[in-house]
Every structure is written in C-alpha cells, then in structure tokens.
Amino acid sequence: MGILKLENVGYRYKDAPKDTYVFKNINYEFEEGKMYAIKGKSGSGKTTLLSLITGLEKCTEGKILYNEKELRKMNLDRYRNTDIGIVFQSYNLLPSLTALENIELSMNISKVKIKNKKQKALELMKRVGLSEEHSKRKILKLSGGEQQRIAIARSLSYNPKIIIADEPTGNLDKDTENEILKIFKYLSKQEKKCIIIVTHSQNVCNEVDIIYDLENI
C-alpha cells in the first residue's frame, strides 16, 4: 500500500487561461522502502509537483493522499515538520552555523523530543559518513558533497517517512553523486523510507526502483 498517492492531480497557475495546465491527470503512487525518480525537461512541472507533495501549493484538480488522508485536510506545518524531509540542490544550510548546529536547529524547529540533541546529531552525521570533526566546521568549510550529507542528516533529524530530494546531486561530480546515491539507497532499503528524487541525471535514474516521467503524461 502506498504511503503517498496522487489521484488525477492537475495544476494550473491562477492567472493562466482556463485550459492551460502545467500538468494534468497525474496518478502516481509512492511506497515505503522504494526509491523514485521524477524526471522531465525544464518547464514540465517538476518543482511545481514537489510544491504540491509538500503542501506548499494546492492542486487545481484531483487530490494528494498521505496515509489515506487528504493533504488539504491535514495540518501541513506538522506534516512538513514530522512526516516529510526535504533535501535541496543548493543544500539550504545556514553558513553562520556549524554542521552540528544546522542539524540541531532542524530538531528545534520540528520540536522533536530528544534529550540529547547533540548526540543524536552526531549519530545522524555518522549515518551519512561524516565524523565528529566535521560537526565542528562551519558550512562553508565543507565540500559540496559534505554539505549535501549534512542536508540529508538534517532531513533525518525528525525521522520522516518520506524524503524528497530536489536535484540533490546537481552540483556534484559523478563520484560524489554515487556516494550520495548509496546513502539514499541505504535509507530506502534498510530503513524503509520512501525516497523521491527530482532529477535530470540518468545516473540517478539508473539507481532508482521506479521512474515517473512528466514529459510523458
């Protein structure tokens, strides 16, 4: 059974002509323990689709269900802070903070109940292949691959069931991309998380379980 379902989803901008849709009649299903790629050319609506899945935008038509509950009827702030983690191409980390502080901040925002947040943050960093030494460094003192690992660790800080990654390897070389993909694969297969990756990379598409192509809707 899918944890996330899109049923006949359509979207058009409010000021667009009535019959002009970004996309229409999308029926996608996402399950825990699997990796998905959403691909499509520029302008096909990949970023818009992520905004709908994360509840930042509402469907013009159709509905999105999380655990059989319609998103528009849920507390979306709670959904974003507890059930779904987001990883960005540009990392979206605060450069004034250390790696550790970025993860701890995420825990504070989500109000996760953990007695020792520092220890939890260090454990998360270890899960993505980073040491305690990395935890003390300011973000700009880390490589792109290390920053993306921190971003993944941050997304795991409140143990979401779904992780959405928007072009997470777009700024990385192929070797580093492969390292990041190994982390996502581990999270899906060993920790049974649903991983959804928006990507242009054929290398990413080669590693996922299911590909949804917005060009072919």
H/E element sequence: EEEHEEHEHHHHEHEHE
How can the largest sheet be summarized?
5 strands, parallel
Strand order of the largest sheet: 6-7-8-3-9
Straight-line N-to-C gap? 23 Å
Rg, rounded, reads: 17 Å
Give the strand tally: 9
Secondary-structure-based class equals alpha/beta
Q: Helical region count?
A: 8
The residue-averaged pLDDT reads: 93
Q: Which stretches are poorly predicted, pLDDT < 50 over at least 5 residues?
A: none
Beta-strand residue fraction: 15-25%
Shape: globular
Helix content: 25-40%
The quaternary structure here is single chain
Strands, helices and their partners?
Elements: E1 4-11, E2 23-30, E3 35-39, H1 46-53, E4 61-66, E5 69-70, H2 76-83, E6 84-88, H3 99-110, H4 117-127, H5 132-135, H6 144-155, E7 162-166, H7 174-189, E8 194-198, H8 202-207, E9 210-213
Parallel strand pairs: 3-8, 3-9, 6-7, 7-8
Antiparallel strand pairs: 1-2, 1-4, 4-5
Helix pairs in contact: 3-4, 3-6, 4-6
